[in-house]
């Protein structure tokens, strides 16, 4: 059974999904800062995303939706193909 996330109707829907690959890294989490709150005043209202720039890094950055650049279909295909090739090579070496 997949977990379900409910988003209140008065919030905008997030543009990006958990684990989505972007030019800025992989999305690990997201938070919503409603307008009129202290956090929204400090960081900007709307969705903020926790991003891991590199798989081998423990550094997390937090970006707003307008700061994130999606991958083109070709860039996404290239990334996934490179990972598949890497793991197939590892399997052959074992």
Characterise the protein shown here.
It is a single chain. By secondary structure, the protein is an alpha+beta fold. The chain has 2 helices and 4 strands; from the N terminus they run E-E-H-E-E-H. It has a 4-stranded antiparallel β-sheet. The mean pLDDT is 92.
Topology, element by element:
Layout: E1 21-22, E2 25-33, H1 38-43, E3 46-52, E4 60-64, H2 73-93
Antiparallel strand pairs: 1-2, 2-3, 3-4
Summarize the entry for a quick read.
The chain is an alpha+beta fold and 94 residues long.
**Which oligomeric state applies?**
single chain
Helix percent band: 25-40%
In the predicted model, the low-confidence regions spanning at least 5 consecutive residues are none
Q: Which percent band covers the strand fraction?
A: 15-25%
Biggest sheet record: 4 strands, antiparallel
What's the gyration radius in Å?
17 Å
Number of distinct helices:
2
- Average pLDDT over all residues: 92
The dominant shape is elongated
